[in-house]
Amino acid sequence: MLKRYEFTLGDVLSDAYNKGFKAVLQGGWYSMGDEPLGPRNEIADAAPLIMTGLSVAFAFTTGLFNIGAAGQFTLGVFGALVFSLVLKLPWYICMLAAILFGAVWGAIPGFFKAYFNVNEVITSIMFNWIGLYGVNTIMYGGGNSIMFSTNDSKTFRLDVISPQSKIPDLSELGSRYFVQPATIAIFFAVIIAVILWVMLNKTTFGYELKACGHSKTAARYAGINEKRNIILSMTIAGALAGLGGALYCLSGSVQWNPQDSTALPAVGFNGISVALLASSHPIGSIFSALFISHITMGGTKMDQSIFPKEVASIISGVIIYLCAFMMLFKNRIARLFTRKQKGGII
Questions:
Q1: What SS3 state is found at 115?
Q2: CA 296 → CA 137, 212, 221, 309, distances in Å?
Q3: Cα separations (Å) of 20 from 65, 187, 303?
Q4: Cα–Cα–Cα angle for 57, 62, 66, nearest 5°?
Q5: Residue 342: pLDDT band with limits 50, 70, 90
Q6: Taking CA 177 as the corner, what is the angle to CA 24 and CA 185, rounded to the nearest 5 degrees?
Q7: Helix (H, G, I), strand (E, B), or coil: what is residue 243?
Q8: What is the phi/psi pair of residue 31, to 5°?
Q9: Residue 97: CB partners within 8 Å, gap ≥ 6?
Q10: Quick one: which H or E segment has residue 100?
Q11: Which residues lie closer than 8 Å to 274 by C-beta, 6 or more apart?
Q12: 19-57 CB burial, b ≥16 within 10 A, e <16
């Protein structure tokens, strides 16, 4: 009886690893058949995730919580699709439009925070849903919108309607499975992360923004314009999330479904996870976004008859909680040692 139980337990553990957690650990490298998927989808998914992570991380650094990244991301998608599907402009113009749309959507909560002291979390959540349903209404237009394809029940395919609006693909690097369908969007995300780090740590403007985040009262007495910096912080955060929307929809492989998109884009909220995992560090956001993209991709390859794909989100959530606990205990241990040192001096 005991041996049969041990065999059953071992069989369960073996299935749990081979049909579930093995796929999560290997991510895009997990092979479901003749060929591994490679990192191409991870790279493609990581680019917009880096941008929403940077959006949240930037706001955190300046003392604000930009929970509205999902709405700003949605407005970025809308701006990019208007300039691509309707105006048929080049991809870089569409990206600038997405930045503008996202920046405006981020600036409004910043304005209310600066001049009326309205908590940015409340206004950002409200603008998330206003943006989502507003965009869906305009894109669908009762089925008569010039952006909506009745055949696909989605927006028109970008590579068919306006090929010049599609972000260029990466060239082949020895294997057609290695980079496709990734685009140069990943390079934009990495470069912007580096620029953001330089701005925050090497410029006077970045110092002023961080000073307002640490202490608004001290910043005010130092002659820093507190209200202006709050609005600028949320505007920049919105612009980053809006650019993430452009990197997402201008890849050419995505069509927006205004009828089924009744939930906010997950990539917007996953940006919070990216920022927390990176401790709001711009460079760290690159690696945390790649990590979350990796395990999310692996989660879709698990045996769905045994494990739901949400298991990957649970794993990433547990990791983030552990990181938060580590920071908490680290601070407490540091305070404990500080007290002991003071006691020794006395």
A1: helix
A2: 30, 35, 46, 8
A3: 34, 32, 6
A4: 50
A5: low
A6: 80
A7: helix
A8: -100, 120
A9: 79, 80, 82, 83, 89, 246
A10: helix 91-116
A11: 49, 50, 52, 53, 56, 57, 285, 288, 289, 292
A12: bbbebbebbbbbeeeeeebbbbbbbbbbbbbbbbbbbbb
- The tens digit of pLDDT for each residue in 57-106 reads 999 999 999 999 999 999 999 999 999 999 999 999 999 999 999 999 99
- The confidence band for 2, taking pLDDT boundaries of 50, 70 and 90, is very low
Taking residue 198's Cβ as centre, other Cβ atoms within 10 Å add up to 12
pLDDT in tens, 216-230: 888 888 888 999 999
CB 230 within 8 Å of CB 113: yes
Do 91 and 164 touch, CB atoms closer than 8 A?
yes
How much is the average pLDDT of 105-116? Answer: 97
Residue 106: both structure tokens together: 């981020």
Q: Which helix (H) or strand (E) holds 152?
A: none
